[in-house]
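Forwarding the complex inputs:
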Amino acid sequence: QQPVQSPQAVILREGEDAVINCSSSKALYSVHWYRQKHGEAPVFLMILLKGGEQKGHDKISASFNEKKQQSSLYLTASQLSYSGTYFCGTDPQAITQGGSEKLVFGKGTKLTVNP
Amino acid sequence: EPEVTQTPSHQVTQMGQEVILRCVPISNHLYFYWYRQILGQKVEFLVSFYNNEISEKSEIFDDQFSVERPDGSNFTLKIRSTKLEDSAMYFCASSGQVNYGYTFGSGTRLTVV
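Prediction (whole assembly, two chains):
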């Protein structure tokens, strides 16, 4: 089941913050976040496995809610290099089944950072 | 930094022809994947491969598709009889373990005419 990402697109000025959400109707085993620049491969940002988990590096962080049905990606003090399409990839396998090896990706959120 | 290498970067083929897309995953990775992305759309799972066999595949991955790891380094995707709707960017990815992030290759753009 495909996760729902919101918003579909966001335009920022350099230095502004953004939040991208990824939601599922069922509890997930894990959530991955990737950024893809135009014409390039998706690049792994981070993975969240535990309910209530938060992690991040530099000014990009993410959280996974307690019910493991929503994840949010936080971009603070955005830089021009943050521009791209952000995808969440979710593992749809039931928790009791220990996850699976495939990811189901959302439709993506296009982030544009202007000077 | 280790990377996943895909060749060719662009392939044009006639409908009904066979194509082989090649990938060299990161050498110490154990899990290998093919995904595809139709222009401007989401990334779709095709197949995962572990321990020299397919571990999962999607509904897209029908009898026209096959994967091989012929020599311990290359990982190939074959489409036996291409259709127009197979036109897409095909990404190979690998990961060291389940629940690790994927490293994607730069993709092969397949155009079926």
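The longest strand of chain B covers residues 43-50.
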